[in-house]
Batch of 2 targets.
Target 1
Amino acid sequence: MRKLVYYVAVSLDGRIAGPGGEFDFYPAGDEQQAAAYSAWCNARYPEFVPTAMRAALGLADTPNRRFDTVLMGLGSYRPALDAGITSPYAHLRQYVVSSTLAPDTDPAVTVVRADPLALVRDLKGELGDDGLEWDIWLCGGGRLAGALLPEIDELIIKSYPVVAGAGIPVFDGDFDPTVFDVTDRDSFDNGVTVTHFTRRR
């Protein structure tokens, strides 16, 4: 069965964005550190690079490695919309959970108005176009992650050495302690750690 994987950048105080949706406060390090970190992320997770940036990064013809679907809330979709991009991940199937977004925003984007848990459970039961069980990337945000916590199988947390002070939490939902086990961790010279967690069954 497909897995739902939450991949997200997080501050030391558990924020994925500032109070106004800001995400430009994450320190990338010096030029060399930033380039090495970016190259590692892009090589390991090419699916997570927006379509408009893939050619410039040499990823235009790079096939998806693990994911064929992305799921996001309106807050995660909004930066692309504000830039005039209605299909930010054209190399994936795109779902946006929103009660206010127009359903015809883009033919490549499916707007889901309610019950994201039912959507994820349906998606998990599907096969990809090639008959394989490609995984689902949960792009954010915190409220959607909180609602989908019962179905999240893995976390990939990019932890940055910065305190936001306020903003959107990585999970925003009901009190529901859920244990995940660390399965892998990589550290970088810019102070970032990338940790993989798997839900304890």
Note: DSSP finds five helices and ten strands in the chain.
Target 2
Amino acid sequence: MRYTFAIGDIHGCIDPLDSMIDRIETYASKGTVVFLGDYIDRGPDSKSVLDRLIAGPAGPWRWICLKGNHEDMMVAAYADSDDRPVWISNGGLETEMSYDGRVPPQHLQWAGDRPLMHVDRYRIFVHAGVVPEFPLERQTKLDLLWLRFPPGESSDYWGKHLVHGHTPSLSNPVTTGNRTNIDSGCVFGGKLSCAVFDDEVAGGPIDFIEVRA
């Protein structure tokens, strides 16, 4: 059996991230891990989170790190000073404090280069959401990074299951029809959540892994 593991919003919470990686590597000996973005801001140690993700996996694992709206805000803040106040007021100050000053160029480059979406045989992974009225290839960056679903909303998502974070709730992870939200509000006193998928079977998660902050 082959697995894909999808991890929700981390927001600078390095200890839950380290514990989650350990849990995943206990669950299976290999597989794909999709990180859904928002690695930085608000939490205590964004630098350590990026250091860990940039270092990559050990052994036969594949890691895919998507871009979240907070990475996008950080990159924009360093590219244009007019964008800086928005980022700082949304947790950027905590991020810069974890670096004892400015975020280095190599971390900005890595954050800026993250893809917005990962699609496999049965699933679509994005940070925030998609608009099903438009083809998948025509989704906008704004929607992929910022969209929020009304409670209970689902669609057919082009015959695939949609996996996302971005909209935190202490009651997550929750699967609603063909959609699973795994942002469990780790940085807000919740937990870091991971959805487990069987790569050979269509549909939603077969399991969840949860780590308390």
Note: DSSP finds six helices and ten strands in the chain.
